[in-house]
Amino acid sequence: FGPPIIIVKLRPSICQSSIFFDSEIKNLNNLKIILTLGKVAFENCIKFYKKNYKMQKKFIFKHGRKHYLPDGKLLFSSYHPSPRNVNTGLLNEMKMKKILISIRKLL
Questions:
Q1: Distance of alpha carbon 53 from alpha carbon 13, whole angstroms
Q2: Which of 104, 103, 40 shows the shortest CA–CA distance to 74?
Q3: Within the chain, which residues score under 50 in pLDDT?
Q4: Angle at 41 between CA 84 and CA 7, to 5 degrees
Q5: What beta strand segments (E) does the chain contain?
Q6: CB pairs under 8 A, 24+ apart, for 41-48?
Q7: Rounded distance, CA 23 to CA 26, Å?
Q8: pTM above the 0.85 mark?
């Protein structure tokens, strides 16, 4: 049994992470919700779905936005919790808690 939620956070080795991500999405049978941390992770998640589900829909990154994916999963997007985003106020504890509480309610 896999977890009902996966948090995606890609680092500089995006290509290797992308391969790992593709495998995880395909093999986690109980996965219901994906939370991407940062726009790069969000775009790679969308790339996976467009490649595997031939989607045409345009997905726009915005913190806290919920997207419905073609396999029934939900995708939540969040700003990356980097020091830069925290120090500039783009992401704070309240914003992060809000998205995590929204996800918890759906589990």
A1: 25
A2: 103
A3: 1-2, 12-13
A4: 95
A5: 5-8, 33-37, 66-68, 74-78
A6: 41/8, 41/9, 41/10, 41/80, 42/8, 42/75, 42/77, 44/8, 44/10, 44/14, 44/17, 44/18, 45/8, 45/21, 45/75, 46/75, 47/18, 48/18, 48/21, 48/22
A7: 5
A8: no
| 3-state secondary structure at position 102 | helix
Rounded Cα distance, 75 and 45, in Å: 9
- 10 Cβ contact list (under 8 Å, min separation 6): 17, 18, 21, 38, 40, 41, 44
Please list the residues that pair with 33 across neighbouring strands. 5, 74
List the one residue out of 95, 53, 14, 24 whose CA is nearest residue 34.
24
Query: Which pair of tokens denotes residue 78?
Result: 């969040």
Who's near 4: CB < 8 A, 6+ residues apart?
Answer: 30, 31, 32, 33, 107
Please give the pLDDT value at position 1. Answer: 43
> What residues contact 19, with CB distance under 8 A and at least 6 apart?
none
